[in-house]
UniProtKB/TrEMBL annotation:
Molecular functions (GO terms): ATP binding; ATP hydrolysis activity
Gene3D superfamilies with a match to the protein in the record: P-loop containing nucleotide triphosphate hydrolases
Presence of keyword Membrane: no
Record's keyword terms, sorted: ATP-binding, Nucleotide-binding, Transport
GO cellular component annotations of the record: plasma membrane
Organism in which the protein naturally occurs: Oryzicola mucosus
Pfam families in alphabetical order: ABC_tran, BCA_ABC_TP_C
Domain ABC transporter: 8-249
Name by which UniProt lists this protein: ABC transporter ATP-binding protein
Length: 249
């Protein structure tokens, strides 16, 4: 396929810690508009790969291209401004702000330069309205005045998606959005991601294969830091190498 079909690509992506290859020579192509999953057994290199793509880690070798631009040497904040955004870790950042305030902070940072908070009080109203709209969209309208710390686990994840959507990313990267969730939270968050993915590209690291099967168009499987295979869920789940890898091979 031609390169312009892809929002995000990596070539020869490699990360060494000391002499150890956590990620080795991985090629990735994330099709624009797709929901793409990165899966693999524990220690496969998913988190490292995710951190490389979101610029949290610097690769030892390889290149990352976002919308045709080489972003390998760029900082996370700069690629975020270009439209590549990873989910916020609300619980780790603003636990004592309310849900509404958390989304407003994200909106303010997104509109940073254009938005003169102190100069124009009239600008606060549209900002609040937009924040309310985002909370409503993720099912948190009733919880807007609760602090992030007071929210249930599932609602915290929903708030993280709302703050990520506040930045209106072209590609949204989610690290294990259903981790630690009970069944009752998994279905709504899956629906939420599907809804949030409309008009954008999503890359998720996900352990729950049933979530992957219902949500994701393409799946990349890593093992021992290397690319094992890539394809649809039907393709990868019937691949004997994948089955062996998941059985601890
Ligand atoms: P996954 O997310 O698939 O479980 P990780 O990317 O977390 O895998 O880890 C891949 C491998 O790299 C593991 O063997 C892990 O121990 C190792 N690793 C990850 N981060 C570091 C680090 N900062 N220093 C040393 N080794 C690391």
């Amino acid at each position: 396929a031609d390169a312009s079909a892809y929002a995000l690509t990596a070539r020869g992506l490699t990360k060494q810690f000391g002499g150890f290859h956590a990620v080795k020579n991985v090629d990735l192509s994330i099709r624009r508009g797709s929901i793409h999953a990165l899966i693999g057994p524990n220690g496969a290199g998913k988190t490292t790969c995710f951190n490389l793509l979101t610029k949290t880690l610097t690769p030892t070798a390889g290149t990352i291209t976002f919308e045709g631009r080489d972003i390998t040497g760029m900082r996370a904040a700069d690629v975020a401004r270009l439209g590549l955004v990873r989910s916020f870790q609300i619980s780790a950042t603003f636990p004592h702000l309310t849900a509404l305030e958390n989304v407003r902070v994200a909106l303010q940072s997104a509109y940073g330069k254009a938005f003169h908070f102190w100069r124009s009080l009239s600008a606060v109203e549209p900002l609040n309205a937009r924040a309310e709209e985002l909370l409503d969209r993720v099912g948190l309208a009733q919880s807007r005045n609760l602090t992030a710390a007071e929210l249930s686990y599932g609602k915290k994840r929903a708030l993280e998606i709302a703050t990520t959507l506040a930045l209106d990313p072209q590609i949204m990267l989610l690290d294990e959005p259903t981790a630690g969730m009970g069944h009752e939270d998994i279905e709504p968050i899956t629906e939420l991601i599907r809804e949030a993915a409309k008009g954008r590209t999503v890359l998720i690291v996900e352990h729950n294969l049933s979530v992957v099967s219902t949500l994701c168009d393409r799946i990349t499987v890593l093992q021992h830091g290397q690319l094992l295979t890539e394809g649809s869920y039907a393709e990868v789940s019937s691949n004997p190498d994948v089955i062996t890898a998941y059985m601890g091979g």
